[in-house]
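User: structure tokens for this one?
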Amino acid sequence: MSKPASGLRPCVPRVSVSSHVAASGAAATDVNACDEGAQRRLRVAFLTRRFGVRFGGAEAYGEHLVRALQGLCDVHVFCQEWDSRLVVNHTIVPRGKYLPRWLNLADFTRRCQSLVRGFDVVHTHENSGFGDVHGVHVMPVRYARLHVRHGWKNWLAVHTSPRWLGYLAMEAARMRPRPGKVIVAASELIAEQIAAAYRETAPVTVITPGVYLPRQIPEQVAARQALGLPADERIALLVANDPVRKGVETLLEALPAVPGVRLWVVGGEGDMPARVRHLAEAAGLAHRVRVWPGQSDLSNIYAAADFCVFPTRGDAFGMVPLEAMAYGLPVIMSGARYCGFARYVEPGTDALILEDPHDAQTLAQLMRQLTDDADLYAQLREHGAARARQFAWSDIARQFLAIYRQSAARA
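Assistant:
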């Protein structure tokens, strides 16, 4: 069982905490616990400030993992924002109204310490020292601020900023070894970044995100009809909570050199969809670009598209190309330096790789290959779908269950 970390005083929130308890037997799961019956089911506290696929890739990762774990252990989610149809026990933790993001993280950690007493394992997706199993699914702060960037001006900017010093202190506490603590990196890329940034850490293991294979993929014509779209367009799809960071500008630069193809951009909150529309208008491509805000269900969108393009400028893993492959879409994605998932595919066989996500000319060439070469298109569909089947969430959940049991035994 986790104990409060030193330096953070546990406190019962003054504001009432709302708890939502799932009806017994109602939780949906794709995992059977038949081989775990001989052992007591672990009680797992899952900490994440935002829970729900609509919030973005990391949040989608959290929801999908909790769904897969439900048949193997008793999971209780602690979060500040909830936007999910998943039936699972959860507690909404109050948020300080005027706290900046980094102080809100410290406050969320402080509040959760008193709420999770009695759980066997605390699995956190947040950057703080509290917890037993730490899911690291983004580039470490120390690596991003002090290894990728150089120079005395950058060093001074970081070390005179309360915000960055706060993040660095919380991350250092997160990496510090303690009996029972395990760091789970979302990809080999993240594991390497942790090793480069920290000389000593708790044990690090790599467990990638997974994918739920669709039981039945809608026919493309039917999917387009459901979306109210014409059946004769050739569609390239980009799904991203932050399309700018995931390469939409490179796509817009490449699109004029790929005649007959339209671009769909799906994702983003607030003014992000409007920002993408403005970029398309500025490029003179408004008539070839369609933009949707974030969606909780992408099945018809994946089924309606012709191929997926993911020129990300930085992804620990990259769940979108994996999900696209599961729906039988050929994929173009950034190379292993920028996209962790690229290390797990065979270039040219499972997917087409864009080594530099800023290279619009090469991206246009790869897109034309998909539109002009029917044999390549069919090969990528077949091999990509086969690769996706190797990342079933049921298998990922069992890997996490093994980590939970090890952590609980060592704590």
